[in-house]
Amino acid sequence: MIQLDKIATTPPANIEKAFAKDATKNYAKRIGELQQIMYAQGKYNLLVIMQGMDGSGKDGATANVFKYCHQAGVNVYSFKKPTDLEFAHDFLWRVHKVAPEKGKIRVFNRSHYEDILIQRVHKWITMEQVERRMAAINAFERLLQEDNHTLIIKFYLHLSYEQQALELQERIDDPTKHWKHNPNDWEERKLWSEYRTAYEYAINNSHLPWDIVPVDKRWYRDYVMTKKIVEEMEKLDLAYPSLKED
User: Fold this and answer.
1) For position 82, which CATH number holds?
2) What is the pTM of this model?
3) Between the CA of residue 145 and those of 103, 129, 141, 186, what are the distances in Å?
């Protein structure tokens, strides 16, 4: 049983920043190499799911982890408030149509888990609905994994309450980050404990495991994520296709 309060949001003492940054660069380049093979082969696809509290660095992680990938093979989808059309369908309708096609990497900046996080925290759905949706999410991820050769890697970006305050304040103090500022983020911060409870439920009831990534230090976040993605992609039977006979 994962309890987030018992997991550090900072790097372990035995990891040096210089080493981690060098390793991250090498891992990111390797992701780029593997992405090209995946694209050429057209057999597998990768879905990277990022969830985390406001200020946990999902945008920055995406930019740094996939910086050496070809843009034709990587797409990022950011889940916002559902549209009226999306609300008129089941909660997974909008998710399924943006799942990765064979040969591609799709990054979900937030994801289908929002429908058992924010909606639970604000009591827009009942706990019975949360449990039904959790079962549907597990079935959906198994479908992608088993029927479409989708490698699914799920990252929870583990941010401390103290660091979140610094990140949100920086969006006010730094003119280059004013565009990120949303006053509602401070209101959501008041529900920190409720979100933690909702996240722990989602993490502990997922069929596929989550990687808990400490993100108070961004260099360590990038190291952990690039390392994990390389390790998982290298388990696939990736190979450039050979010439076809006429």
Assistant:
1) 3.40.50.300
2) 0.95
3) 14, 24, 6, 37
